[in-house]
Amino acid sequence: MSQFSDALNGQIAYEFGASQQYVAIAVHYDAQTLPQLAAHFYRQAVEERNHAMMMVQYLLDADEEVVIPAVAAPQTTFPDIVAPVALALQQEKRVTEQIADLVRLARDEGDLVGEQFLHWFLQEQREEVASMSSLLDVVERSRDNALHVEEYLARESGGENPLEAGAPPAAGGEL
Known about the structure:
single chain; Ferritin
């Protein structure tokens, strides 16, 4: 197995971990009867899970070993409405760095197919960091009235992400 394949297996763990963290954030908001915030993070959880499954499919297609990892338990309690979104933004920035590192590794190994596979993820991460940054701005301004955040998300949600049309295939399809 190449270093790139090993590292991509490691990224699968990070993607599943991100999915679990988003479920925990969604449940936190759901318990506070903030349905728009909860729905937003439930969708994010599915998206991260699908990213992991895209990586699984890539490794299967490349006839490389796939390692389905254990993940650390997510953070489940938060001091206020802002902390979960701040954690999510930090997580998205970390994943962006991880994907960039994977691109560099593929390039260093001369794995042009692996590098090309990751280009979609780089675009996706740029969009994720930008949208999470905007959400954090709104949540920080509305920390004393969560209903403003709910209204913002109700206005902003909907519509298909144009990046999804060009997404790599996910193992098992989009379940």
